[in-house]
Specification:
- This protein is an alpha+beta fold.
- The protein is globular.
- The two termini are 26 Å apart.
- The structure holds zinc ion.
- Zinc ion (ZN) binds next to β4.
Length: 229
């Protein structure tokens, strides 16, 4: 469990198409895809499992200014004008702390509608603009299914802006397993884990603010709906 919640154990995962997913989540995803097809959508996954090393690379590149940082609304920031602590908070708005990403579990995935792409070469970005634009019909359909309790236990942990992670309508979570993982990831375990890391940028700052990071960016999610049958 320990290694698994930090994105370091893939034994519960299986490969599907070009991604890895928790073996108990795949059958549920396939049901959701089938229902989506009936409603006229080709629900595809851009990103599912992401291991610790991959997340660390994203984090470190952002911390070093090698990847664009965004403000609260998703506009690019000028890296050279930011203090280290500002850099840390702006990363956390859009990218999880390595070891504390829901993408480490294989239970969470980012989705889009392949049928809605305007051209074959269109690059899916997963932005609020797409959610309000080309992917709005898919998201309206997903909202209805989630509200009606017919989404096979997928829901949106980042549906609302709670002052932590930015709203990400495309991010679905299979909550029966994800909730267990969230409970298994205590502040103490996260702290011990981060302390052991050798090549994590902004590590000292992260440890200084870890209580706040854990409260605001890990626990602070939209609550899952009631169990579905
Ligand atoms: Zn996501």
């Amino acid at each position: 469990m320990e290694h698994y919640i930090f994105g370091l154990d893939e034994s519960e995962l299986i490969e599907f198409e070009n991604f890895k997913i928790h073996r108990e989540v795949l059958p549920q995803l396939l049901k959701l895809k089938t229902e989506a097809l009936k409603a006229g959508f080709d629900l595809q996954v851009t990103s599912c499992y992401r291991g610790f090393e991959t997340q660390k690379k994203i984090w470190n590149n952002k911390a070093k200014g090698l990847r664009t940082l965004l403000d609260d609304q998703g506009r690019p920031l000028n890296f050279s004008e930011l203090s280290p602590v500002e850099i840390m908070w702006s990363i956390l708005r859009w990218s999880a702390l390595p070891g504390a990403s829901r993408h480490h579990w294989g239970t969470d995935l980012d989705v889009y509608d392949l049928k809605a792409l305007p051209t074959k070469n269109y690059q899916v970005e997963l932005t609020p603009q797409e959610v309000e634009g080309i992917f709005k019909p898919l998201h309206d359909w997903l909202s209805d299914r989630i509200n009606q309790g017919s989404s096979f236990n997928f829901y949106r942990p980042y549906q609302d802006d709670l002052g932590g992670v930015a709203p990400e309508m495309w991010h679905l979570s299979y909550w029966p397993i994800a909730e267990k993982n969230l409970h298994a990831l205590s502040l103490k375990k996260l702290k011990d884990f981060i302390e052991k890391q050798k090549e994590l940028e902004l590590k000292a700052l992260v440890l200084d603010h870890l209580d706040e990071i854990y409260e605001q960016y890990v626990l602070n999610i939209s609550p899952p709906p009631l169990a579905q049958v």
